[in-house]
Amino acid sequence: DQQVKQNSPSLSVQEGRISILNCDYTNSMFDYFLWYKKYPAEGPTFLISISSIKDKNEDGRFTVFLNKSAKHLSLHIVPSQPGDSAVYFCAASFGNEKLTFGTGTRLTIIP
Amino acid sequence: DSGVTQTPKHLITATGQRVTLRCSPRSGDLSVYWYQQSLDQGLQFLIQYYNGEERAKGNILERFSAQQFPDLHSELNLSSLELGDSALYFCASSVGQEGEAFFGQGTRLTVV
After folding, report:
1. Does B66 reach chain A within 8 Å, measured CB to CB?
2. Does residue B41 have a pLDDT over 80?
């Protein structure tokens, strides 16, 4: 039962444009959502998070949007840079439970 | 550098064998999580410890076990290894029982 889904395995975006990565979840109990970035042969690194009491959180070039009614969150990267090429995982948790991860989206930024 | 240390980085072993993966969490973090990433797949949660106690269990096989020691480091024991156990095993730690977790660089296990 995949409670957190990333339906796009890959995404290619021109450098300087906006990258939008999407994530859907099924468990309405989730109250905390995170995005991680992963380079090959490295562990995931935390990017940005959002609590379910908010619908938007910004950190520099990264913005996460949460639509609770649609059980959907997205990560916007503006402007996209070559160093943003990586696999992005969304994750969710509730209460004091562990993080549940999506399967990841491979983002490629085209120079 | 996340502050989470995993050893070894690479491990090659034969089917039927037993291995131990080690994780040192960030200083002050009480929660340790273990995740498995098989080829081109997402991160599958295995088990979580909080301050020495098992807190949550995921799809962890009975052949696998883990523990967290008084100094908060953790070990993941994998026994009767099968070819399908070949994967990247990540450890993560966090201050409490929720919120962002910080990941180690992983142990790549190859079972031949």
Report:
1. no
2. no
